[in-house]
Design a protein that fits this description.
heterodimer, A: 113 residues, mainly beta, 6-stranded mixed β-sheet, 4-stranded antiparallel β-sheet, globular, B: 114 residues, 7-stranded mixed β-sheet, 0% helix
């Protein structure tokens, strides 16, 4: 079985500060990992993904994430937060065994002045 | 990337009634999915709808409650039947094109059952 745990349902940062959203996964086979973002009253949008190869992946809007197999983690970071980054962020895992995306519970990012 | 629209965007319905949600894609896709997002919670997959075959339902979801149609490669409907307040959620459709796990989502249908 595959699962995703996102630590922190709410994260608040100041504009210009580092953003760190945590994601840990559980999978018995090599996973594909994703971060999706949901802006208010919109559907989800893919931020970035890890499938194979380079463990540090870059996505849209300056976000990046690093796959650490030893820690079963895929944390999302951005060096400098912007007000427009305020949204709900979901980590997700996909394996060929389950053949479906499994989402974490989400982290709401608040950016303050 | 695919562009997806959903109708209605929101609705308020009385318990015991049914609502059909439409999902339209601007390109032909094989894999379509329906999710439920309950207030303040994550997405839960209801079913996978592939054209030309019966929808595959996840544990806890049944066809009698959530019948799905997939008449062609650009369109699908999800019906929420005999609704109760517990069905109040956002319902999202998504499609997967070439890359597994990489899905494109519609804007969602916000359903309130009174």
């Amino acid at each position: 079985a595959q699962s995703v745990t996102q630590l922190g349902s709410h994260v608040s940062v100041s504009e210009g500060a580092l953003v760190l959203l945590r994601c840990n996964y559980s999978s018995s086979v090599p996973p594909y990992l994703f971060w999706y973002v949901q802006y208010p009253n919109q559907g989800l949008q893919l931020l970035l993904k890890y499938t194979t190869g380079a463990t540090l992946v870059k996505g849209i809007n300056g976000f990046e994430a690093e796959f650490k197999k030893s820690e079963t983690s895929f944390h999302l970071t951005k060096p400098s937060a912007h007000m427009s980054d305020a949204a709900e962020y979901f980590c997700a895992v996909y394996t060929g065994t389950a053949s479906k995306l499994t989402f974490g519970t989400g982290t709401r990012l608040q950016v303050t002045l | 990337s695919a562009v997806i629209s959903q109708k209605p965007s929101r609705d308020i319905c009385q318990r015991g009634t049914s609502l059909t949600i439409q999902c339209q894609v601007d390109s032909q896709v094989t894999m379509m999915f329906w999710y439920r997002q309950q207030p303040g919670q994550s997405l839960t997959l209801i079913a996978t709808a592939n054209q030309g075959s019966e929808a595959t339902y996840e544990s806890g979801f049944v066809i009698d409650k959530f019948p799905i149609s997939r008449p062609n490669l650009t369109f699908s409907t999800l019906t929420v039947s005999n609704m109760s307040p517990e069905d109040s959620s956002i319902y999202l459709c998504s499609v997967e094109e070439d890359r597994v796990g990489e899905q494109y989502f519609g804007p969602g249908t916000r359903l309130t059952v009174t």
